[in-house]
Amino acid sequence: MPLTYGEYLKIDALLELQEVKSDPPEHDELLFIVIHQAYELWFKLMLHELDKIRRDFSNNDLYGAVATFKRVRTVMKTLVGQLDILETMTPMSFTSFRDRLETSSGFQSRQFREFEYLLGSKRPEMMQHCQSDAAGMQKLEARLQGRSVVDHFYDFLKQRGVTIPQEIKDKDVSTSTVPNELVQEGILALYKSQPDLAILFELMADLDEGQQEWRYRHVKVVERTIGNKRGTGGSLGVDFLKQSLFKPIFPDLWAIRHRL
What we know:
By secondary structure, the protein is mainly alpha-helical. The chain has helices at 5-9, 11-15, 29-58, 62-86, 91-98, 110-118, 134-145, 149-159, 166-169, 181-193, 195-226, 237-242, 251-255.
């Protein structure tokens, strides 16, 4: 029997995964579930693509990294766009089923924490929100203790003639990326001498800007919906989310903008 579209994509199983908790069902709860399930699928894809970028960097594969950064950047723009859909839900609509979320919270998204760790933003304390997921905790710990995209970017820069200082080589990989002036000088020289690398660096800045835009839009959606209330599951809400705004993934790329 030939494989069908529905069988290949497991459509029937997929469409059974949207289970509303409100009774009688609140109209906008389905929207809320679909949006967040879609986010998790996009997170899965971005993790897949960022793992490839790590390999591309260490293998000195410029064009592979360029192509994949274009894809991840486009996915990030899609994540921002999905917030436009979520904002069609009014605060009163969300309030009508918010209690049904009980202890669940977006802070418990293990894949988003993986995404942060993979990009070099390593806040170990955020793992506490995923403690009920034993398998997820193992994956998070592996990401925390693993080399980030930025660590592999240093491999790429070294192969392009940039001197990577010893403090970067010796840095604990479980800590967040920190800017370095020597690395910045090397990137600046490549920007000015190799246009193909400038294309890569601009794509990286695009992705960085996109994740900062997504964080900002996410904060404003939460603020618009619940104001200064605590988040679901006792999460820290808007004030905590604001702390991560405008923190770049690739700080060395931003530090040299005024010198280009």
